[in-house]
Amino acid sequence: EPEVTQTPSHQVTQMGQEVILRCVPISNHLYFYWYRQILGQKVEFLVSFYNNEISEKSEIFDDQFSVERPDGSNFTLKIRSTKLEDSAMYFCASTRGGAATDTQYFGPGTRLTVL
Amino acid sequence: AQSVTQPDIHITVSEGASLELRCNYSYGATPYLFWYVQSPGQGLQLLLKYFSGDTLVQGIKGFEAEFKRSQSSFNLRKPSVHWSDAAEYFCAVFAQKLVFGQGTRLTINP
User: What is the pLDDT of residues A92-101, one digit of tens each?
Assistant: First the structure.
């Protein structure tokens, strides 16, 4: 069964450093999402992406964040200058369509630790 | 604004016992509701979803959920839990993206 993959599984970085989290969505999916979960808190929506554009973003997704689909398979989340509060589990998800009836398939997550 | 509340942060049940995980939502229109499960080291896996029609929906792994509009609830149930059901369970509503509850951690006693 096809699945969403994410790398790395765990990333440790120093405050102020840039990080890039990578995701490979399911191959025939067109809509891509990033969510994050700070330890002990809810899974929160960050951004959705379709047709090489951001469809929607949350207030969390400020200028420090960016997303890109650099080739036909990868979908990346970049944090330019990490803060302590960026420490969280980051989940990538993809769907075939963008409607509620399209199941979002999630990757296993990348745990980001900012020191 | 749309929101989801899972009142129970942690639940412990004995293997073979029945289970009910609570979920309440706040959403202005007809909700599209989901339950996801997250096992350690795994991503979020869809258990079941409700869009319309029959208010009792069946999912994978023997789970079911009942949509009650009058109570704004979408509780997850299983008649007899197995040790492998130990995981974190998330309820969510779709509002152009998934809006999740806090999650309920399920522990199974042998």
Answer: 999 999 888 8
